[in-house]
Predict the structure.
Amino acid sequence: MTPIFGSTLGELQQLCVDEGWPRFVARQLCQWMYEKHATSFEQMTNLSLKVRARLAEIGTVEPNYPVDCQVSKDGTKKYLFAEKAIAPSGEESTQYVEAVYIPDGDRATLCVSCQMGCKMNCSFCVTGRGGYHGSLTTAQILNQIFAIPESRNLTNVVYMGMGEPMDNYDNVLRSTQVLTEEWGLAWSPQRITVSSVGVIPKLRRFIEESRCHVAVSLHNPIASQRLALMPAEKGYPIADVVAMLKEYDWSGQRRISFEYTMFGGLNDTIAHADALLRLLKGLRCRVNLIRFHASPLTPYHTSTPAAIRAFQDHLNNHGLTCTLRASRGEDIQAACGLLAGKKNKA
């Protein structure tokens, strides 16, 4: 079956050429799928019956709806999607991915996943503990956005769920194009943030090929200590990542930020704050502090409120904008680092 939902305008125009249809059919398809959220070809009433019949033969636009939804006491919702994964051996299995809906006043943010599991194996992250089972297609990434009841109310999307976005570069980029191009949802790129541990070659491409915000998972400014938390430090040292980022102009609306999870006794001292100031000196950016969310699967514990406050104040007092991200959905295992893609037992 040819992928229809998740296709770009150019891909749909090529489909029209291959099928002998007028090229304007491609724009009609985009409008039905992305603007009108059509869930069947039958709904696309300005397409000929012949075209609709052929489309039904070669593809689908039907959403893959969530199989489960957990609701936090703070209003956060964690949606679970069942997806098909194909192993290198050709064996097919069902894997689960999660997306988190976070309402906050007049903002409604969806945290989406881009992979089934993750290869990065960060020692503090529950997602990587479950292994890696494959990357999501463009359609599977976008499905998380289009298949939830709150789809039309979303104001922001962050690629901070399961997986490393730069390890699934093409599908992540294409999904952001559907969200931002005039033939798609026509969102401002400033409504989207894509995270990375710092996979330098793909991150450089993303900076040059996209206008979305970028967030880098930093978590420790001292290389040897970061390596103990994040194996990616060996291949992509944070000093090299920051040096690459300094090559670009971040003075406009586009933002570069750094995610910094606070671990008690590991990265929360004033000495660490000073090392962070030295590392990021000269780069227009902000640091988002994240309270570590404890799990039986990890040996770490969170910093004390006093340590977090002192760390934040030290950075702000020395000219580095630093904010503390509010924890959301921790009671349903929906907070940062807790997504495991597990189906609840009945």
In short: The chain has a mean pLDDT of 93.
